[in-house]
Amino acid sequence: MLIVISGPSGCGKTSIAHAVLQRYPELSFSVSATTRQRRANEIDGKDYYFVSKPAFEEKIRRGELAEWEQIYDDYYGTPNEEIRKAHAMGRSILLDIDVKGALSVKKKYPDRSFLIFVKPPSLEVLKARLMKRKTESTEALQKRMDRVAMEMGLADQFHATILNDRLEVAIGEVERIVARFVHSTAGQNQNLL
Length: 193
What we know:
Layout: E1 2-6, H1 13-23, E2 28-29, E3 32-34, E4 48-50, H2 53-62, E5 65-71, E6 74-79, H3 80-88, E7 93-96, H4 99-108, E8 113-119, H5 123-133, H6 138-153, E9 160-163, H7 167-184
Parallel strand pairs: 1-7, 1-8, 2-7, 3-4, 8-9
Antiparallel strand pairs: 3-6, 5-6
């Protein structure tokens, strides 16, 4: 099963994904590829595969990505190899990806994906969270905020929506959803690719 956690930047999806992975070590985590600059606390191959734009565009041409999106000036995508590795181990995989990428996964794997949309309590809280991260310039922060309306408008295409007003509550709700798939798909070996 491909379990996708998505939502606007700053909604808490990565924090939720990390907590769920700690609770369910039998899940695999899909490391995305990106062309954006690596942040100080990020590790190549663990947080993202950091690649050049030409290398990413070559992956697109070769069909090596299950999904990809260009967000502003950078590319983000899920390497097919991440899904293959989880499948070979007989594991469900957790993807922490952007909203449009999540919908691409749903389209490609309609019977094997479950999409969870993480909704912030308000735009003000979302903006405050992004500012607290101190990872974006004022211009980049505004670009992210400009994208939120479009992303929120796609929430109804997801299987579940979780309000992240209190992180621990949101984590618990996502863990309950994930538990159904982790326990029901154990031992299954259906062809995903």
